[in-house]
Structures are given as C-alpha cells and as structure tokens.
Input
Amino acid sequence: MALPAPSASTAALITGASSGIGADLARDLAGRGHNVVLVARRADRLEALAQELRDAHDVRAEAVACDLIDPEAVAALPGRVEALGLTVDVLVNNAGFGSAGQFVDLDARSEADMVRLNCEAVVVLSGAYAPAFAQRGSGAILIVASSAGMQPIPGQATYGASKAFALSFAEALHTELSHLGVAVTALCPGPIDTEFAARAGLADAFEGVPSFARVSSGDCARAGIEGLVRNKRVVVPGLPIRAMAVAGRHTPRGVLLPLMKRFYPA
Output
C-alpha cells in the first residue's frame, strides 16, 4: 500500500498548514508531486506557503482560510475544495492546539474549543472523505495525535484526552480501512520546536527537554508521511519519545500519574 499517485485533478488536504508540522507536511507532500490544499485560519501565512510550494515544486497549491473550531465552517470545507475542481485523495488532520494548567483554572470555553478542533473536526473531515476513499479502493488519512495521548496528563487534562481520542480513532480506522486499500496512520510527536508550546503555555517545560529527545518539525513530518506510505498504524518519531510512549501506555496508572503530576506541576 502506498500514497495514491499524484495527478492534476487530485490533492492532499492539510489542516493546520500555516506553520509548524502542518507546513512541513505540506512541503513533504508537495515534494512528492502532490497538489495541496492548505487550510488554517491565517490566510496570509497560507498564501505565502502556497506560493513557496508552487515555486519549489511546480504543483498546484491552494490556500483556503477556514476556522476549524466553527462546526459550520468545517461542514462547508469539502464543498469549498470541490469548487476548486480538485478531488481530495490524501487527508491530513493536523490542526490542533493545547493548554496547560489545572483544569479548574483554565477557560472552559477554550477547553471546549480544543475538543471541537482536536476531536470533532477530525471526525467530520474523515467522515467527509473516508467513504469515497473506501469506494475507490485508494486514499490515505494521516491523523496527527501526540505522545501526550498515550497516557492521562495532570496539568494537560483536556489536551491529553483529546489526543488520546485522536489516537484511538486513527487506530480503529486503520483496522477498518486497510483491507479496502485506504492507509490510515496516527502521527504521535513528542516535544517539537513549533508555536504549539508557546500557545499551550509549555515553553519553559519544552526548553527543559534534552536535545537528544527533540525531533525537528521537518523530521517529524517526514516520518509521518513515510509511515503513511507504509500504512503504519502509529508513528512516534524519535527513539527516546518512542520509549516514553511505550512506558506511558503500559505503566500502571497508580504509578504513572503521580510522576506525571511532578513533571507537569502547573
């Protein structure tokens, strides 16, 4: 199984493509000859990246500004892409954000928006495209979860839970769709030097991660796409983070949670 072959009428749709891993996922796919539809809120950044990809790879790159927290905007997105005359054959659900702090101290509306973006938008867009992929017997879905989804995280309760949902959803879809010719992979990064940490209030915590445990955004994106090409169920870039992910999944919660609370003392 591999990615669908690129063509003039098909494209990869990448959400959260205005920066970080999303932008590098778009660069990787464009470098493989795929047209790309770049989706995020910041139209100026999307258009700048689209022009970069057109110039570098001679592909069609469309910038579609969309607030994926808005359910109506998410529902309308497939129609907007169809109006461009493109058929999506690769879906990259990357858009998301996090937060840090005791849940009772965080803004409840923002936490609910996080669930809408990190979970609901993933389900809606997968539901918009997976049936057609299955019918054609060809297609690929990359869902960017997180190593944070491998275990509960006190101090990041909503974020960890939202990424656990994304991971579980991706693994189930992988099992449901692989025999139909559709690749589904969950990408689970650890700490990456992107805007995510600053927005989540984790810049100081990320700075404390040793360099050997860090993976660049570009390397993370490359690992995710290579995993999708091979239809790997889960990709965790970087050996140290992979070891921590295994521990997070299998350590008894009574032992793990106090340790996590010490690491996330918010």
Residues 108-136 form the longest helix (29 residues). The chain has a mean pLDDT of 89. The beta strands are 10-15, 36-40, 61-65, 87-93, 139-144, 182-187, 234-235. The two ends are 44 Å apart (CA to CA).
